[in-house]
Design goal:
The protein has six helices and three strands; from the N terminus they run H-H-E-H-H-E-E-H-H. It is mostly helical. The protein has one domain: Winged helix-like DNA-binding domain superfamily/Winged helix DNA-binding domain (Arc Repressor Mutant, subunit A), CATH 1.10.10. A hairpin with a 7-residue loop joins strand 2 and strand 3. The model has no long low-confidence stretch (mean pLDDT 90).
Length: 152
């Protein structure tokens, strides 16, 4: 089987698209003193309430060792807090703290500007369709139970 041109490779196209989008978000997040990984953690906790570290790592797409280091930093900055699970004393739950909610509030206007620019360029319908297609692709992977073979 002949290899596809990298220009038409789905994994490479997804990486290029991610970088194109994140090139707008990274500087904005840096202006607010957070990395994209820290932002994902804060957002997931804001959305989900309390989670243990493994659930948080999975939902924020962060490797567990990276998250362990990040938790300390986010806790020191007052963005998140740790709580013992009442049912299982060995389990630690993480929750967004007031400073975490404040950073979300601070970032929101800049984030909305980036989304508005994307919508202006591509249209809300196209962006919604893209997100739906990406969720569908993720769902397919999860249903398959294993990684898709790379037939590049």
């Amino acid at each position: 089987m002949r290899l596809k041109e990298t220009r038409r490779s789905l994994p490479i196209a997804l990486l290029r698209a991610r970088e194109a989008v994140m090139s707008h978000f990274r500087p904005m997040l840096a202006d607010h003193g957070v990395t994209e990984q820290q932002w994902r953690v804060i957002r997931v906790l804001e959305e989900s309430g309390m989670l243990d570290a493994s659930e948080l790592a999975e939902r924020a797409f962060i490797l567990a060792p990276s998250l362990t280091r990040m938790i300390r930093s986010l806790e020191e900055r007052g963005f998140i807090s740790r709580h013992k699970d009442r049912k299982d004393g060995r389990r630690v739950l993480l929750k967004i703290a007031p400073a975490g909610k404040a950073i979300i509030h601070d970032v929101l206007p800049d984030s909305r500007k980036i989304y508005a620019a994307l919508e202006e360029c591509y249209g809300q319908d196209k962006l919604e369709t893209l997100i739906d297609m990406l969720e569908e692709l993720t769902s397919f992977h999860n249903q398959a139970g294993a990684s898709l073979a790379d037939d590049e």
